[in-house]
Amino acid sequence: MSLPSSPGSRPWTFYVLAAFFTLFVIFLYGPMISVLVLSFQGPNASLVFPLRDPSTMWFDELFNPRRTGDVVGAFDRSLPLALIVMVLTVLISVTAGFAFRRRFLGASLIFYTAIASLIVPGLVLSIGILVTFKYLLGQSAAWYTSALGAHLSWALPFGLLIMFAILGRLNPSYEEAAYDLGASRWQTVKSVVVPIVFPGVIAVALFGFTLSYDEFPRSWLTVGPKNTLPLEIWTMTTNVTSPALYALGTVTTIVSFLVIILALGSILIIQRKRSR
């Protein structure tokens, strides 16, 4: 016979889930904090703890490379590639989301074809795109052609799924009310639909940027002779034995967090304006 729990006490499942969540946070943020701390190692320090003679010299090493790779060049390719993927993902996902609100012949086939790339291993897709470009199209792989297509094949399905979920919850009565009040189709989309779905559009943009910016498997053979940032980091792990690697990890993590903060801040501002 089990003893009755005292008033206000929590069930044992609460503590199990709390312990699981604590482990999740440690595994998620522990490595990032370690990399952040070790990126401030001194000139004669090693790649491991303890932190000795704290300095910012390894950040300077990234932008004035003497023993590191082409970090600045890799960043100059990764950033515009991620921005292009973000813009195209938003445009295609939003227009496709509106198009799929009405059933049409072949809609299911197009949908499953679009999201099928999620189950294809990234490295296999990278090899296939390289073979297609080089031997069928006679073109060399480059970050702005073959890598752009590879990244879109990864980011676009997520954008489509998000927009389908957002537009699936959009109550048609809002649009019908606007039409009853005399609004035109364009006015209804601009003043009613877009403000409602705009936080979802920002989420699609965030997915498009981050998935491309951090993508490694689909970039492996598709970027051509010049690396993007994830590939440059991987190269540095094999030939750079200094804390500059940690400094690069810190910088890229900060960029990703800034993008996430910008996106979440935009959603918060929009929601506050809508609540007034």
Automatic annotation (TrEMBL):
It is found in: Cell membrane. Gene3D superfamilies: MetI-like (1.10.3720.10). InterPro entries: Bact_Polyamine_Transport, MetI-like, MetI-like_sf. Residues 75-263 form the ABC transmembrane type-1 domain. It is a multi-pass membrane protein. Keywords: Cell membrane, Membrane, Transmembrane, Transmembrane helix, Transport. The chain crosses the membrane at residues 12-40, 79-100, 109-131, 151-171, 192-213, 244-270. Belongs to the binding-protein-dependent transport system permease family. CysTW subfamily. This is Spermidine/putrescine transport system permease protein. The lineage of its organism: Bacteria, Pseudomonadati, Pseudomonadota, Alphaproteobacteria, Hyphomicrobiales.
